[in-house]
Amino acid sequence: MRVFLTGATGFIGSRILRELLIDGHEVVGLTRSEAGAKALQAAGASAHIATLEDAARLAGGAETADAVIHTAFDHDFANFAANCEKDRRVIAALGAVLAGSDRPMLITSGVGMGDPGNGEPAREDVFDTHHFNPRIASELAGQEQLQAGVNLGVVRLPQVHDTVKQGLISPYIEMSREKGIVAYVEDGGNRWSAGHVDDVAKLYVMALLRAERGARYNAVAEEGVMVRDIAGIVAERLGLPLVSIGKEDAAGHFGWFALFAAMDLTASSALTREKLGWIPTGPGLLDDLRAMDYATIK
Questions:
Q1: 298 pLDDT tier (thresholds 50, 70, 90)
Q2: 3-state SS class at 287
């Protein structure tokens, strides 16, 4: 297949690129720069230069593709809500090219969108259309494209990690370094689901080949890792005090991160594993946290 891959030079996208090329697919990767284009060409892919703000040029990358994987996202969390709305527009632009065909398109969301609201882990067969997380805009856009005739599926992400990046934990580490303490909310008993980046990349490719219209997949290897345990390793590796703060102080301490700091983000991947035969084999989140070089986190 000829696959148009957005975010092709990014943390997850670059691993998906590798998996697609290993499987013998032709890949056209989205990049914003000539440097990115050279990196894609060196990896064995073609480059399509465009920005997420240029909907028409972005959509052009999908016109000759047999399939689309959309992982690009503006990770400026200080403007998270606005960037989620931008993602809605990107999904609409890509979908307009694919509508009425069987060409599959995978978009990216977060596991929280499958929260059943009863304290149980998020599931693939649940879609909370009123979820408070602004990232709901991506899945709402996907739902609109499904109704418009696009063969669309969703990959929901937990904390995706290796020994270089750790999802939301990377900015948490930098924030802790700046503030001189490593904080968690109340008893830190809330949990975050996780998946190693290589396992996540394999799941994208498996889901694309299945091409099931309307399917949702949770890229979850670990259902829930306690935030207190995460914070403890970060504190040890940074040599900083480990501090519990009350919910009333979370916004003042964490800023934009307060939205996530006390959130329980457990998620199951039972349905994903059953459908795809996906078996994650990568290291766990805490193992990668212990092994990473904290001097490289910026």
A1: low
A2: helix
Residue 289: how many CB atoms within 10 A of its CB? 24
- In angstroms, the CA 44 to CA 241 distance is 46
Give me the torsion for CA of 90, 95, 97, 98, rounded to 10°. Answer: 150
Q: How far apart are the first and last CA of the chain?
A: 37
> Under DSSP, is residue 130 helix (H, G, I), strand (E, B) or coil?
coil
Determine contact, residues 174/298, Cβ cutoff 8 Å: yes
Tokens describing residue 273? 């594993």
Helix, strand, coil percent values for the chain (each to nearest 5): 45, 20, 35
Exposure b/e, 51-80, CB count within 10 A at least 16 = b: ebeebeebbebbeebebbbbbbbbeeeeeb
Q: Mean pLDDT over all residues of the chain?
A: 95
**∠ CA 263-266-271, rounded to 5°:** 145
Tens digits of residue pLDDT in 150-177? 999 999 999 999 999 999 999 999 999 9
Q: At what angle do helices 13-22 and 34-43 cross, to 10 degrees?
A: 30
Q: Coil, helix or strand for 239?
A: coil
